[in-house]
Design a protein that fits this description.
Blueprint lengths: L1 H25 L9 E8 L15 E9 L6 E3 L6 E4 L3 E5 L6 E3 L5 E2 L5 E2 L5 E6 L12 E2 L14 E7 L25 E8 L5 E12 L2 E8 L2 E2 L2 E2 L2 E2 L3 E4 L14 E5 L13 E7 L11 E7 L7 E6 L4 E6 L4 E7 L1 E3 L7 E4 L2 E3 L8 E3 L8 E4 L1 E3 L5 H33 L3
Parallel strand pairs: 11-20
Antiparallel strand pairs: 1-2, 3-30, 4-29, 5-6, 5-9, 5-25, 6-27, 7-8, 9-10, 9-24, 11-21, 12-13, 13-14, 14-15, 14-18, 16-17, 19-20, 22-23, 23-24, 25-28, 26-27
Helix pairs in contact: 1-2
Length: about 425
Amino acid sequence: MSSFQQGLSGLNASSKNLEVIGNNVANANTVGAKASRAEFADMYANALNGSGGGQIGIGVQLAAVAQQFTQGNITATDNPLDLALNGSGFFQVTDGTSAPEYTRNGQFKVDRNGFIVNDQGLKLMGYPADASGAIQAGQAVALQMPTAGITPAPTTKIKLELNLDARSAVTAPAAGAPIDFTDPKTYNNATSVTVYDAKGQDVALTYYFQKAATDTWNVFVTANGTPISTAGGNPVASTTITFPSNGGAPTAPVGTVALDIPSVTNAAGAISVPIANVALDVSGATQYGADFGVTNLAQDGYTAGQMIGVQFEANGIITARYSNGQTKPAGQVEIASFRNPQGLQSMGGNAWTRTAASGDPIVGVPGSGNLAALQSGALEDSNVDLTAELVNMITALRVYQANAQTIKTQDQILQTIVNLR
């Protein structure tokens, strides 16, 4: 009768194998899904005499259904919130109350509260950032994008890099007002830069470069057309640049020049806030026999802005982009790996939970140690090899038929014995 048990166990094992193969095929297009493999073990009855030399097996049993945590292909998408891990590790997601779950599916969205969530509503975990954008490493929490805009920052420094044409004629008036901003004959060149006050209001600074003598240039500055420095009703140069005879880096001023920008009125009639002690750096100026040209004109202030998007870096840092052109870290993704990922328990929804067999998670930021690098705008495909699964399906079917045939053959033998006379 053992042949019936052998055949029956073979039918059950083949049926389980077909179920595993069918599940793999069903998840061939599931992002982050991992193929499973049915692993079998033979069965033997215990030998009473302690010798197993002549033992015949009594069938087969399903030893394990082992998931294969190999890397799936990376497919690029147009969604910056799609994330793929290239290497070892899992995203950590939480519902806020239960233990974290682990997933390779990087299809994330931002919900109405600013949390980064997957299709199951579980929140992506990582390190938050403070108001200044500094990452607060430590215990991972649900990542939440900032809903408030970025506050304005007043200008504190300005850097000028330009060439003043050494061939230019002296334009400083011999008498009267030192400069007439409406008369181009009283200065040689001009350029402008926008600065910002404490409220984020823009103020247009215009620099007028006036050649006073050989290798000497006066710099006058106006704010929205108003001279920032006057004496007796006349504009006063904010600084004088002195060049060496070879026209290289200025010998004066030494260091930066402090500018105090007064309150001025803009085109709409609003009054700006004074911007005090702005550091003007003209050390990058030159005076060569070439046309006037500005190569760099930078300042560090900006107006208020609202968040218009996020971008994930390879190390997991989430960079928030604002309408005023500024960027600021909004958090950092933390990922986890396991010594024995096959010990994880599948929870469905492309997620697993830790077990005693998997061990505790080893956490860190993407790209650190042996953890995977993060790729934004991409997804990891299922690692199911559809061609191989279809071949395995044919093999499992033949094995099922063969086990059915052993039962049929044993039935015929018993029938023959019953018919003996």
